[in-house]
Amino acid sequence: MSKETFIVNIIHRPELSPEYAAKVNGRGKSEDEGKEQLHDESLDIFLLQQRLAHENGLKTTIQITYASLFNDEIIEIAKHDHEVYGDEIALSLLGLPCDEFKAKYKTKDFCIWMFSKEDKMAIIDDCFSLFYQKFGFYPQSTGSYYLDAFTINYIKEKYPSVVCAIATCWEEGPKAYHTCNNSWYTFMDGGPWAPWIPSKFNTHCPATSIEDDSGIVAIPHLSRDLIACYDGNGSNFGTHPQNVLRGLIYKDGELPYLFNLIDQYRNLAKYNNGNAYNMMFVGPGWLNKAGRWEAPYELLVKSYSDGMAYYGKLKKEGKCIDMTMAEYAKYYRDHHEYTEPECALWKDIVYGSQKQYFWYCDPYLRCCLDFNQGGAMIDLRPYVAKLEWETGIGTDHVYDASYPYLIQANYRAGYFTHYAGAGTIKSLKVSYGAEEVDLALVRTKASYSKEGQDTVITTDPCDIKFSDFTLTLQSKFTFKRGTGEIVIERNILNDIGKRKVTFDEYLTGAFGTTEYQSDMTRLKMYIENDKEREQIDFAYKCRILDLPNTKVVGVEIPDVETIVEMTGDNDIGEFEEGHAFSPSYRISLKKTLSKGGMKTCLKLKKDI
Fold it and tell me: Model confidence at 288, in pLDDT bands (50, 70, 90)?
């Protein structure tokens, strides 16, 4: 492996009108008094953030907001820090709300991806032209919580200088909505957690080739804990120090979790050809002088100062390289191939459970394996479909920018579910006579390796206990680069004599972006062997069809333009149609054996 490189982007935005701070600071004051105090406070905090970065030898990317473009003092500070410290001056499409914006566009909306196409173009042109007036050049970087494909394509065509953008906020979907009192309509689950080159068709999907390349490198809005964020509220688990305070993951003013999280990201170099990335993006509203989340201003500042000091220490020790966003975009393109996957074998660093997830992302799929459930697949997204999922007013998805799932164990139950239902999951059932054990009930751990260009995850041997013997089983998952295929091997490691067990390699799936299932009657389920083919249109009738020596069993899902297929070793294949009370489908391959193993392949294809 090449020398491990850990790169950090430190991103600041001088946000003179952060509305969440205005609500705190404006209490008991006239409107003008509140605005003046908020302006002065936000500027002071931005200056503090810049000072802490520079004192620790770190360069920043200054994402100038629309409101800040009307402030000469901010413009001069940015120019100074660009000249003296090498900071990049970029343009943020966050921070739109201000008197000038509200007067011009007459709206309370402020999320760029939620506007109509006409308004998106007008706002982008307004921001970019004003930026050019103030600085004499167009920015190389931009960003928002989310940038839809239309917005990215328009920016790149009109302002080709842009090479990097903050493009999504990892796993900000229904969980974030629920923890914001069901009021924060910004759904954007299903994207990468690490830098990627977005497809021209859908921002969440990594580009397959130069023809599919949107022309920018995208980075996530935050670097988040890839277990805690997926299982719970992501707003509490990130390398954003104030998120850690909001999650109450500190004691006596110290935040060891923050440093452990940064180190977890450093560790990802082991799985990604020696490259690891992290980012820290904090606007001044998060260091509110009135305090936040029962934390006083002094602790907010200390947490931010400690975070900067840690990055500075790593840099001095030669363990970290600080880059601007534009610098990182060039580095990424020089060190990353289109079909190269992003991998993360992630461990629990919050609760000490020894739980492990493995995350995999490439231009064809994103998935997650949970080794607390024997390696069960608990998340699967069909990037191969390259769904053109338009967002904003005038589209079918005004606010829901999420990329649809085929499996999502938190939204659609997973293994642990109501007796009358079935959750989405991919796992193995092992039966012996009348006894049956799902591997999702057996804990294990895993290790990472490579076979050529393919990624391999191998579980530790685990024991499945039956009434009169114990079966020792090991699983191996091979992610075939550039194919949308995952080869799964289940091997018996001990001698079970003449006893015979049956392996049932199955996938229970659905589709959607929230907990609620859309109509499934457009699905087609099929199964075939060398002699015959059976197919049904999904109608919630609980039908089961099987064939011996199955060649392929699959499902066509037109709503997400995806075909899901299973092939491989089997004595019999089967599909099962779900019912309305628990809408899902199930496909499986079964094999009876007393030694050796079973090899199957899960493949995702675009349904054209």
Answer: confident
Looking at the DSSP bridge assignments, the partners of residue 526 are: 535, 554
Measured CA to CA in angstroms, residue 237 lies from 186, 222, 570 at distances of 18, 10, 43
Q: Which residues of 188-225 are buried (b: 16+ CB within 10 A; e: fewer)?
A: bbbbbbbbbbbbbbbbbbbbbeeebbbbbbbbbbbbbb
The 3-state DSSP composition of the chain as helix, strand, coil percent (nearest 5) reads 30, 30, 40
Q: Which of 325, 392, 332 is nearest to 124 (CA)?
A: 392
Number of residues that this document lists for the chain: 608
Tell me if residue 523 falls in helix, strand or coil.
Answer: coil
What number of CA atoms fall less than 13 Å from residue 111's CA on the CB side? Answer: 21
Amino acid at 451: E
**Model confidence over 152-187: pLDDT tens digits?**
999 999 999 999 999 999 999 888 888 888 888 889
Query: Dihedral angle at the C-alpha atoms of 60, 61, 62, 64, nearest 10 degrees?
Result: -170
- Type of residue found at 42: S
Q: How far apart are the first and last CA of the chain?
A: 39
Which pair of tokens denotes residue 427?
A: 């796992």
Task: Enter the tokens of residue 530.
Answer: 């060398």
Any bridge partners for residue 450, and if so which?
455
Classify residue 29 by its DSSP letter: S
- 70 burial level (CB within 10 Å; 0-12, 13-18, 19+): middle
Element (H, E) at 252: none
* Contact predicate 546/574, CB 8 Å: yes
Summarize the confidence of residues 124-143 as an average pLDDT.
98
Q: Are 402 and 513 in contact (CB under 8 A)?
A: yes
Q: For the whole model, what pTM was predicted?
A: 0.95
What DSSP element (H or E) covers 230?
helix 228-231
Q: Residues 224, 237: contact at Cβ < 8 Å?
A: yes
Pairing state of beta strands 462-465 and 321-323?
A: unpaired
User: Which residue in 194, 198, 195, 191 sits closest to 173, CA to CA?
Assistant: 191
